[in-house]
Amino acid sequence: MIKNFFKTNNIEYLEEVSLKKYNTYHIDTICAYLAFPKNKEELIIILKELTKNNIKHFILGNGSNIILSMDYYNGVIITCYMVACYSWNCCYCDWNYVAIMLKRLLY
Predict the structure, then answer these.
(1) What pLDDT score was predicted for residue 86?
(2) Other CB atoms within 10 Å distance of the CB of residue 4
(3) What is d(CA 9, CA 50) in angstroms, rounded to the nearest whole number?
(4) Are 33 and 13 in contact (CB under 8 A)?
């Protein structure tokens, strides 16, 4: 279901991917899906779809100050570092804060 959503909306994603290169501790956690929104509009579309369908998800910024404590994450990891740098012109966003604020605005 989520794979079709990504393809239909032309959202870049990977399946069954290691997060080792996406966190500064290089912990080798595997996630079911890793999504790469290109802009804040795409991020909002993704969050709406995942929330509407009760799909487990997590927003990962640049991967610092986080310990990935499980071997497998059966959900969608959204990495937004590139969105922050290129679309919002601010490389030092706290993505957990952004996610909370977006969810408050959307729901």
Answers:
(1) 43
(2) 8
(3) 13
(4) yes
Q: Is residue 24 within 8 Å of residue 60, measured between CB atoms?
A: no
pLDDT, one tens digit per residue, over 50-99 is 999 999 998 887 665 677 888 999 999 998 755 444 444 444 445 555 66
* pTM check: above 0.90: no
User: What is the spatial order of strands in the sheet that 12-18 belongs to?
Assistant: 12-18, 30-36, 72-79, 57-60
Q: Over the stretch 12-61, which tens digit does the pLDDT of each residue have?
A: 999 999 999 888 888 899 999 999 998 888 888 999 999 999 999 988 87
Query: Is the pLDDT score of 7 beyond 90?
Result: yes
Place of tokens 């487990």: 56
